[in-house]
Amino acid sequence: MNALARRLDVATRITEAAGALALRMRPPPGAPIATLKGAQDWLTEADGATEAFVSRALADSFPEDGFQGEETGSGRTGTLRWVLDPIDGTANFARGATRWCVSLGLIEDRTALLGVICAPALRETFAARQGNGATLNGAPIHAAATTDLARGMVECGWSPRRPNPRFWKAIADVMGQGAAMRLGGSGAMGLADVAAGRIDAYVELHINLWDAAASLAILAEAGAYVSPFLEGHGRSKGNPILAAAPGIADALAAAVGFATWD
Predict the structure, then answer these.
(1) Which of 116, 140, 164 is the last residue of a domain?
(2) 111 and 199 inside one domain
(3) What is the DSSP code string of 12-24?
(4) Could you give the angle at the alpha carbon of 120 between the alpha carbons of 115 and 125, nearest 5°?
(5) What pLDDT is stored for residue 32 in this prediction?
(6) How far is residue 17's CA from residue 14's CA, in Å, rounded to a whole number?
(7) How many domains, in total, are found in the chain?
């Protein structure tokens, strides 16, 4: 087993164990049990516990690697950097819903090497490593073969870091092409759904590295188009993102004016 394959194997076990930990801590359905860090930016006790668990486990297995978590920032440095969102879709999690995940990616400079996304309440694990394809629960996945945007389904992620009118325009631009629209509350899972062909595209005006790091490798290995997220400010401040079935990527980018997003 080569070094990257070993890292994926260990990362999958760690991420699934972290997902099981978070699932045990999930609140019952109802009003959110969490605190607000910002506008609709929720934090739960499980976020901290999950991040601490993953950070310790990775340090034990790969002490030479760097680590960056959403809640604690960059605690360790290294040529390879693990990037964790301990719970993506925290607003869903805090209400006892099922659409949330633990998202763990490994990057080297501007290259996404591998990614694991575990959605324990849905009993799903997405995984990929560079040059070896992408899987869902061990079975290969591929982006959709859709070629007509008017037949497509697109998720538009919302970010408080961009003005709401720009978000509304993105939705109008997509629906103006005849595409169906959805909003699921988890960027990592929306991107993973593109890789699995469950939806045809995901666009967001701004997404952070920890939300996207795992998905970048999964999308690439599933044959989806994904914008060059790790260029520019992607590794530090985040970037816009567009991920799509290859047959509609150009049409979608033109429809929403993606080239002008910043």
Answers:
(1) 140
(2) no
(3) HHHHHHHHHHHHH
(4) 35
(5) 62
(6) 5
(7) 2
What is the domain extent for residue 209?
Answer: 149-260
The answer to whether 221 and 130 have CB atoms below 8 angstroms apart is yes
Position 151 scores a pLDDT of: 96
Task: Count other C-beta atoms under 10 Å from residue 33's C-beta.
Answer: 16
Do 106 and 156 fall into the same domain? no
Sheet holding 239-244, edge to edge: 180-182, 153-157, 201-207, 239-244, 225-226
Does one domain contain both 164 and 134? no
Report, as ranges of residue numbers, the positions in the chain whose pLDDT lies below 70.
1, 31-34, 36-43, 73-75
> Residue 8 region, left (φ>0) first, then alpha (ψ -120 to 50), else beta?
alpha
Mean pLDDT estimate for the chain:
92
For the record, the structure tokens of 252 come out as 């979608």
CA distances from 198 to 216, 217, 221 (A): 17, 17, 16
Question: For residue 19, what is the domain's CATH number?
Answer: 3.30.540.10
| Residues 218 and 89 occupy one common structural domain | no
Does residue 177 contact residue 149 with C-beta atoms inside 8 Å? Answer: yes
Global confidence as pTM: 0.93
CA distances from 64 to 33, 78, 182 (A): 37, 6, 41
What is the pLDDT at residue 227? 97
Residues of 42-78 as b/e, b for ≥16 C-beta within 10 angstroms?
bbbebbebbbbbbbebbeeebeebbbbbbbeeeebee
Q: Indicate if 76 and 174 belong to the same structural domain.
A: no
pLDDT score of 1: 62
For the CA atoms of 254, 148, 240, 43, what is the dihedral angle to 10 degrees? 150
- Point out which residues pair with 136 in neighbouring strands: 126, 139
For the chain, what percentages of helix, strand and coil (3-state, to nearest 5) are there?
Answer: 35, 30, 35
